[in-house]
Amino acid sequence: MRTFIIKANEAHTRPDFKLSDLPGTSGRIDILCRFLNSAFLLSHGFRKNVRAWLLLYGPPEPPKAIRFEGSRLKVRLNPDERSTARLIMKALKAGEGLREPGKEVEVYPGLYVSNRTFEDVIRLTLKNSALYYLHEEGKPVEEVRFPTNVAFVLGDHKGLGPEDEMFLDGIAERVSVGKKSYLASHVVAYINIFLDSLPNPP
Amino acid sequence: MRTFIIKANEAHTRPDFKLSDLPGTSGRIDILCRFLNSAFLLSHGFRKNVRAWLLLYGPPEPPKAIRFEGSRLKVRLNPDERSTARLIMKALKAGEGLREPGKEVEVYPGLYVSNRTFEDVIRLTLKNSALYYLHEEGKPVEEVRFPTNVAFVLGDHKGLGPEDEMFLDGIAERVSVGKKSYLASHVVAYINIFLDSLPNPP
């Protein structure tokens, strides 16, 4: 089981953006669309053993947590950004007016929205997965022995802030796919292909 | 120097598609947009040592060859699909009415369009690069010794046909990033990150 968690510091938390201008109007929800593409899609296939969490911290109602559960997802995840952004919009619409911090609304089977925080999601994930923070200065992934359940934390184009990094210190091992700073979607694509190559892939 | 070549069997060769529905109206030019994103983009950076060729073979005027030359590109390549599709549209518009097979039109500095065929582009590339065909059954990239100038050939969602494969036999080494069938953009992201990790990256 593979979990990918991305914190999107500016991603809008209401469906107030334009599908025709995601980079300019949504707080870069286009990044989340490509992240989901890399997390789940194969050529003519879909990774059921993946869970993805989007943590949206942009205006006007942060945070919103959107969970895609590969094993249960009944709605089709297409490779293009626009159709994925439409799913995120639907989730944000379903999450409007949510007040209870712990309550998760099912948007479609396998797609959920809640007011969970980044810290909530990390704590929840730690219960059954080894946690890794993808960072240029981490240990090369080739040298890590990954267990059966793995979870990877990534930042968006702004990266994680010092408070998030402090929170992760001691609970997440820093691992790296290289010394350069790569786009989140490229890192996730690399990690998935790399994990597939292991004798016992998570 | 890294060259990435993709043959898109159904990609439209005139700008007759809708930016608001790339998968449905363009013959999957969305695939080419994500391919370019993976070929060129770093987080807050751009790979100048990359050349990308899009070989479009869809209706109504195949073939069209679009070349993105990283070292000279003056127009901004943004990460989102829609703005990249707009560049492809501009190139196709500039290529309308082109008759001479060998003539290349400069759309912007570093962006060119021509009527070159897949075979033309492969022959041209062979002059200064070692050629690799990315294929599930190829030699693992980890076992390949890559020279300074490398070129990778990929298919789109339909893959390359038997004629293309026959043409590549003997001139391109089959190399693989894994046994599964991956999306072109994921393969290119993997290859770029993998090449970066080599002692003398191409």
TrEMBL record, chains A, B:
> Any keyword Methyltransferase?
yes
One example of the protein's molecular function in GO is: S-adenosylmethionine-dependent methyltransferase activity
- One term under GO cellular component: cytoplasm
Keyword flag Manganese = no
Alphabetical list of Gene3D superfamilies matching this protein: 3.40.1280.10
Q: Which reaction does it catalyse?
A: pseudouridine(54) in tRNA + S-adenosyl-L-methionine = N(1)-methylpseudouridine(54) in tRNA + S-adenosyl-L-homocysteine + H(+)
Instruction: State its location(s).
Output: Cytoplasm
Per UniProt, which keywords does this protein have?
Cytoplasm, Methyltransferase, S-adenosyl-L-methionine, Transferase, tRNA processing
Q: What is its main location?
A: cytoplasm
Q: Where does S-adenosyl-L-methionine bind?
A: L134, G155
Enumerate the Gene Ontology biological process terms. tRNA methylation
- Quaternary structure per UniProt? Homodimer.
Q: Which PANTHER family match?
A: TRNA (PSEUDOURIDINE(54)-N(1))-METHYLTRANSFERASE
UniProt similarity note: Belongs to the methyltransferase superfamily. TrmY family.
- What is this protein's function? Specifically catalyzes the N1-methylation of pseudouridine at position 54 (Psi54) in tRNAs.
Write down what this protein is called.
Answer: tRNA (pseudouridine(54)-N(1))-methyltransferase
The organism is: Thermococcus guaymasensis DSM 11113
